[in-house]
Design brief:
366 residues, mainly alpha, two-stranded antiparallel sheet, 15 helices
C-alpha cells in the first residue's frame, strides 16, 4: 500500500520531471566531455566560451522557473523579478571585488578601485563581511529575500492585486536601478562591479573554473526545479492554485491568502537571487542595467513562450529566447527588439499555452 509520502513523491517525480532531469544531466555531461576530452581542433570540441554562454543560459532558466512559480501557479505577474536577480548578483559581485585586494588598478588592499577613484577613505559598513564566501552566499539569499518579504507584506496585506501589483513591482525595480546608478550608494555607480580575479582562490578565467561554474548552474537549476515542483504538488501548491483561480473564495473558506502569497513570493525571490549569484562570475560584471524594467519584462516573455504553470516550459522558453537574442544581437542587432515583440504577439495569439502546450496537444493527439 502506498503511503501519502510515497504518493506525493510519485507526483513530484512525474514523467515530465524525470525527462527534464535526464535531459539536463545528459547535456551537462556531454558538454563536460566535449570540452575536456576532445581537442580544440576536433569537430566535437565545445570551446570554453560556449560553455560560459550555456552556463549563463542555465542561470536564466533558473530565474524563469522562479517567475513561473509565482505567475503560473500563484497568479502574480511580477514585472520586477529582475531586481531580486540583480541583488543576488551584487552580493556575489561584492565578494568577488573584495577578493581582488591589492591587485586592483590603484593597489589598495581594502578598498575597491571605484572607491579609491571617488576618494572614499574607508570601507562602508554594508561591505563588511563580504571578504568571506559564506557571508556572501548568505546575503545572496537574504538580500532579495528580505526585500521581497517586506514588499510582499505591505502589498499583500493591502490586497493589491492584478495589474496594480504588476505596476508596483516594475516601479520597485526601476527605483532600485536609479538608486544603484548613484555613486553615493557605494556599488560602483553606472559602471557597477567588474574586473573580478578569482573565486575561492580559483582563477575565474581558467577553463576548469568556467566548467565548474557551468556545472554548478546545472545543479542549481535541477534543485531549484525540484524545490518548485515539491511546492506546487504539496498542499501549499494546491492552495496557491486556488488563490490564482479564485482568491476571494479561497479567503472566504478560511485560508490566510496573504501568508501563502508572502512565503511563495519570498522563496521565488531567493531563488532569483541564487540565479543572479551564479550569473555574475560567469559574465564578469554586474551593473545597474540588470535592474532595468525591460529585463523583467523579458522574463515574462520567456515564461509565456515556454508555457506557464509547467516549470519545464519556463526553462525551454528562457533558453530559446536567449539563444535567439545571442544570434540576432550578433547578426542583426537592430532587429532584436522587434523580433522579441513579434515573438510575444505570436505566442499570445497562436500559442496561449506556450511550447509546453503545443507538446501536450501533440501527445494527446498521439
Amino acid at each position: 500500500m502506498l503511503t501519502s509520502k510515497n504518493m506525493n513523491q510519485n507526483v513530484v517525480f512525474d514523467r515530465a520531471t524525470k525527462t527534464f532531469l535526464a535531459v539536463l544531466a545528459a547535456v551537462t555531461v556531454l558538454v563536460i566531455i566535449c570540452n575536456t576530452v576532445f581537442s580544440p581542433g576536433s569537430a566535437l570540441h565545445i570551446p570554453t566560451y560556449t560553455v560560459t554562454l550555456l552556463g549563463k543560459y542555465l542561470t536564466f532558466a533558473l530565474l524563469a522557473v522562479a517567475v513561473d512559480l509565482i505567475w503560473g501557479y500563484l497568479g502574480i505577474l511580477s514585472l520586477g523579478h529582475g531586481a531580486f536577480f540583480a541583488l543576488g548578483g551584487y552580493a556575489m559581485g561584492m565578494y568577488l571585488m573584495r577578493q581582488i585586494g591589492d591587485r586592483g588598478v590603484y593597489g589598495d588592499p581594502l578598498l575597491p578601485d571605484f572607491m579609491v577613484f571617488l576618494n572614499w577613505s574607508e570601507l562602508p559598513w554594508f561591505w563588511q563581511g563580504f571578504d568571506q564566501f559564506w557571508f556572501a552566499a548568505l546575503m545572496v539569499v537574504v538580500a532579495p529575500g528580505v526585500l521581497a518579504f517586506v514588499f510582499g507584506w505591505l502589498a499583500f496585506r493591502s490586497r493589491v492585486t492584478g495589474v496594480y501589483l504588476s505596476i508596483i513591482t516594475q516601479a520597485l525595480t526601476f527605483a532600485l536601478m536609479l538608486a544603484f546608478y548613484r555613486n553615493e550608494m557605494g556599488f560602483g555607480g553606472n559602471n557597477g562591479l567588474t574586473d573580478f580575479k578569482d573565486i575561492l582562490g580559483f582563477d575565474l578565467q581558467s577553463d576548469a573554473t568556467r566548467l565548474t561554474l557551468f556545472t554548478l548552474s546545472a545543479v542549481a537549476l535541477a534543485f531549484g526545479y525540484l524545490a518548485c515542483r515539491f511546492i506546487v504538488t504539496s498542499k501549499l501548491g494546491r492552495v496557491a492554485m486556488a488563490i490564482r483561480d479564485a482568491e476571494s473564495r479561497t479567503r472566504f473558506i478560511g485560508y490566510k491568502v496573504e501568508n501563502f502569497k508572502l512565503w511563495i513570493w519570498t522563496f521565488s525571490a531567493a531563488l532569483a537571487g541564487i540565479a543572479g549569484a551564479l550569473y555574475v562570475p560567469q559574465v564578469g560584471i554586474i551593473n545597474p542595467n540588470e535592474f532595468s524594467p525591460l529585463n523583467s519584462i523579458e522574463l515574462v516573455v520567456w515564461v509565456a513562450l515556454g508555457g506557464r504553470a509547467t516549470l519545464y516550459g519556463a526553462v525551454v522558453g528562457a533558453i530559446a529566447v536567449n539563444y535567439a537574442k545571442t544570434y540576432f544581437t550578433g547578426v542583426l542587432p537592430e532587429v532584436w527588439l522587434f523580433a522579441l515583440g513579434g515573438l510575444f504577439v505570436i505566442t499570445t495569439i497562436f500559442l496561449p499555452k506556450g511550447i509546453a502546450g503545443l507538446i501536450g496537444r501533440k501527445e494527446a493527439a498521439a
